[in-house]
Amino acid sequence: MGLAKRAVLFSIMIMVGICGLSMAAVYNVGDSAGWTILGGGLDYQDWAATKKFFVGDILVFEYNNQYHDVTQVNVEDFKSCNPESPITRYGNGTDAVTLASPGEYYFLCGFPGHCQAGQKLHITVNSAGSAASPIPPANNVAPSPYTTKLSSLAMTFAVILPSFLLLV
């Protein structure tokens, strides 16, 4: 095989690998119910308990912005349902929040009474290399079609690297 063809093939393999690395999991908070207090008893902590969040993952909050918002707060304000000193406040109705660093994240609805009614979410974000044990999936819950983990990158290289070495 010519050197030019090998270079093109190698470039394609590198791009596929990079795409695998850059993909993050995207979670729709509350799944089809969204971010609301009208979710028929939806418990956001139960929702989060079936997921494992990593740096780079994205939370999508979908809600009616006439009646709700998304307010990121510290732990004390989360416990007391106090939206008055937000870290960040979102109000578009479809907000994508990228989890930029490992640690604890706290969200609540800043409209009066909504947090007290259960419209709040606490999650733990793990670093990409975290070796914590996986959380078992809830019964009858299908994995998100948007969820892609770094293991796909490892599989990509495990398949492509030997193929490339055969070409050399």
State the gist of this model.
The chain has 168 residues and is α/β, with parallel strands linked by helices. 29% of the residues lie in helices and 21% in strands.
Q: Can you walk through the features of this model?
A:
The chain is globular and about 65 Å long. Mean pLDDT is 77; it is low at 11-21 and 131-167. It has 2 domains: 1-23 and 148-168, no CATH class; 25-147, Sandwich (Immunoglobulin-like). It has helices at residues 3-22, 44-49, 75-79, 151-167, and strands at 26-28, 53-54, 58-62, 70-73, 88-90, 94-98, 103-108, 120-126. The N and C termini lie close together (9 Å). The protein has 168 residues and is an alpha/beta fold.
List the helices and strands and how they pair.
Blueprint: H1 3-22, E1 26-28, H2 44-49, E2 53-54, E3 58-62, E4 70-73, H3 75-79, E5 88-90, E6 94-98, E7 103-108, E8 120-126, H4 151-167
Helix pairs in contact: 1-4
Query: How many domains, as an integer?
Result: 2
Instruction: Return the CATH architecture of the largest domain.
Output: Sandwich
| Computed Rg | 20 Å
Indicate the mean pLDDT. Answer: 77
Distance between the termini: 9 Å
Per DSSP E runs of 2 or more residues, the count of β-strands stands at 8
Largest sheet: 5 strands, mixed
Query: Approximately how much beta-strand content do the residues carry?
Result: 15-25%
Instruction: Give the CATH H-level superfamily of the largest domain.
Output: Cupredoxins -  blue copper proteins
Alpha-beta content class: alpha/beta
| Element-by-element helix/strand order | HEHEEEHEEEEH
Helix percent band: 25-40%
